[in-house]
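Ligand-bound model needed. biotin.
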Amino acid sequence: MIGEPRTHVAECESTQLLLGPEDPEGAIATTDHQTAGRGRLGRRWIEAPGTAVIVSVLLRPPAGRRAPELSLVASVAVALALDDATGRSSAQIKWPNDVLLEGRKVAGILAEMKGVAVVLGIGINVNQTAAELPPDTKLEAASLRTLDGVVRDREAVLASLLRRLDCLYTEWRAGGLGALHPELAGRDFLRGRRVGAAETVGVAAGIDELGRLRLETPTGLVHVESGEIVLEA
Ligand code: BTN
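Prediction:
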């Protein structure tokens, strides 16, 4: 069961550091504030104290399974949890691990290997005011509060996230991305947009059943496994 045992601290450098291979699968670490929150690609993840859902989860995917798929499993879980919170069905996934509402980034996911275990870190902007959001992000940031003015119980958002993740992770363990794929495809923010991935520029043409981003380029179809996707003009 994802969510047990739970370690909660008022403040830490990063919840990613509070879990290790010795912890049981499903263990989580939460905090009210990180002093050195980690984002993808060496970036920082910054949140004002007491405003966000900050959680790391220890998972042990079966041997031979593609761990990067876990970011997509988490993205779908976060999107569903955001919809639970807003009562709408509008959260989108910017492959592979940003979750957006109204085109703005509300949540991010970071998957880090620790031996054979994976520590999945999730940050959701819940109650930040506009002034509390980081100004210079590649993708404009938002919180649930800046989008609809509602201040929410962060524990309720966390509970919904853990319930969604537990269910989707069980499905993924049993059968890979197949069962999740329709939900993933339906929430694909990049589809039809012109994007860049490393040296390649093309039009995003969906996420395949292995979780790779399909790019239509002038020289043919390319499958992107990982990395940063930049929106092109
Ligand atoms: C990203 O968008 O670049 C990923 C952000 C991941 C942030 C979460 S918050 C919980 C966990 N602890 C961290 O230091 N990072 C992740």
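The helical segments are 69-86, 144-148, 154-175, 181-186.
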